[in-house]
Amino acid sequence: MATDINDVFLHKMPTHLLLAVGGHSRTYVSVIAKECDCTYPHAVKILQEMEQFGLVKSEKLGRVKYVELTDYGRSIESSLKHLTKTLGAKNRSDHEDLSYLYLKIDNIVQRVDKIGQALKESHHPTAEEITKIGRRLGPYYRELRIVEGLIKAQPNSYISEKVSVVKSKLAEIKTEIASKQIKA
User: Fold this and answer.
1) Is 69 helix (H, G, I), strand (E, B) or coil?
2) pLDDT class of 10 with cuts at 50, 70, 90
3) CA-based nearest residue to 63, from 97, 95, 29
4) pLDDT of 3
5) Which domains does the chain have, with CATH numbers?
6) N or C, fewer C-beta in 10 Å, the chain?
7) What is the pTM of this model?
8) Termini Cα distance of the chain
9) What is the C-alpha separation between 27 and 67, in angstroms, rounded?
10) Which residues contact 78 (CB under 8 A, 6 or more apart)?
């Protein structure tokens, strides 16, 4: 466990996790872990250290753990954004800056496709199974809002098109859920 706050940010993953938490108002630790390509236990460990320093606050409701930045965490996030932008300014082109959005939207498309496929494969789902599938969609609506906010600042037709595709897939899944709820 870190004994000095400097130890928390001398590594890539803590910085990446804090910036990812800052990209959401309040989100699941599992969403942050996936976004950072980090295991859930590793993310929890780092976020617990951050919580000790007052950067994040977490809340566990049942089996789900939520996390969000504190005011102090937002201040550190702002400084980290500035620092990473300053450090990366010489080495990154606009194309590389967009690569993050490309990866994020493609990841969302893949995960939404998996949910849609699971729904199609369940021929006679119970009402509980249908509800679970519907709840799995929530984080993707939030992620899409974040991506939409980012593309407003940096318009890109490829990403805008992908956002539209995901929105239509989510609408299709929602319609299919509704039709299966009627049958159940």
Assistant:
1) strand
2) low
3) 29
4) 58
5) 5-88 (1.10.10.10), 94-183 (1.20.58)
6) N
7) 0.50
8) 49
9) 6
10) none
